[in-house]
Specification:
Uridine Diphospho-n-acetylenolpyruvylglucosamine Reductase, domain 2; Uridine Diphospho-n-acetylenolpyruvylglucosamine Reductase, domain 3; 11 helices; binds flavin-adenine dinucleotide
């Protein structure tokens, strides 16, 4: 399969990229690792007239540990994250190896995955669980968008026209936080049929705060407030795990597709959540 014809440009600075996007409007599209966009072009699911390759913009390649967070530039590859020890950002490190295969992670970027907002993608689920902040760059400057409002539907984000995702801020979690990431896919490297991310604070052997997310079950990843509430103040014994799993299965509204029925996905989420909580239990 070959893509439709397009103009290609490779700016060296964010301002330059924004100028090209502004000039061509809807016709132009940022190109990061190309691991989703190039297949979309080849299958004629997208036909942008201009591709703005943001891969040479050094500002978007930053990866910095700051006082209370990690700043990860939009074009930092998933493989670079995988190979880096991200102290305080364990959930991200646990999730990245589930993305496709190593070759895909070598080109696929953190920002590309988050901007693409595939409902079955791992990184949006991580961002939602840890309350990451997406920083958009536009011609009027930068603006911060919280994870809970960034994902606007399947393959939709809340970037405005002409904006690009500049970087993502992942908060460093306290040392009392334990994380687990679980997903079920038919083959290693496939997109998940359903998955669960957990970041649970344990103080004096009981749960003091819980952030639980299910993904690959609907338009966007969703937090599981019922299951979170069910485990706060608990020691995560077998009965607590059962209660949380039941709460999660009851509160999600999974979609129905060729990979699984809503009932099947509810069962997977319940089982994965039990395993995740078992892993983080004191
Ligand atoms: C065989 C295969 C298996 C895969 N399996 C998985 C998987 O299991 N889990 C998973 O999460 N992904 C998977 N992927 C997708 C892969 O992870 C991609 O890396 C990711 O979806 C997009 O990142 P990218 O950098 O390649 O972005 P691109 O493909 O370059 O871009 C994707 C979209 O995001 C937009 N975009 C990119 N960067 C920015 C930015 N900075 N600002 C604004 N918009 C931007 C582009 O315009 C485009 O619309 C798989 C891909 C393949 C080919």
């Amino acid at each position: 399969m070959k893509p439709p014809p397009f103009l290609y440009c490779r700016p060296r600075a964010v301002d330059e990229a924004l100028a090209v996007l502004a000039e061509h409007g809807d016709e132009a599209r940022p190109l990061a690792g190309g691991q989703s966009l190039v297949p979309m072009l080849n299958h004629r699911l997208a036909r942008p007239g201009v591709l703005v390759d943001i891969g040479a913009i050094t500002e978007l390649q930053r990866m910095e540990r700051r006082a209370s967070d990690w700043l990860i530039g939009a074009t930092v590859t998933q493989r670079r994250v995988e190979r880096h020890s991200l102290e305080g950002c364990e959930l991200l490190s646990l999730a990245v190896p589930f993305i496709g295969h190593r070759q895909i992670r070598a080109r696929g970027t953190v920002g590309g995955s988050i901007a693409h907002a595939d409902p079955a993608a791992e990184l949006p689920a991580v961002a939602l669980t840890v309350d990451a902040t997406m920083v958009a760059a536009g011609r009027d400057g930068q603006r911060a968008i919280g994870a809970s409002s960034f994902f606007a539907g399947p393959y939709m984000n809340s970037l405005a026209d002409g904006e690009i995702l500049s970087h993502v801020i992942f908060p460093v979690l306290p040392s009392t936080t334990r994380c687990s990431f679980k997903e079920f896919a038919r083959r290693k490297g496939d997109f998940a049929v359903a998955g669960v991310a957990a970041a649970v604070d344990i103080t004096d052997r009981v749960v003091s705060k819980a952030r639980l997310t299910a993904f690959a079950i609907g338009s966007n990843p969703v937090r599981l407030p019922g299951a979170e509430g069910a485990i706060v103040g608990r020691s995560l014994d077998a009965a607590d795990l059962d209660t949380a799993a039941e709460a999660a299965a009851a509160e999600i509204e999974p979609w129905d597709d060729i990979h699984g029925s809503p009932r099947y996905r509810r069962q997977i989420v319940a089982a994965l959540l039990q395993r995740a909580l078992q892993e983080v239990a004191p």
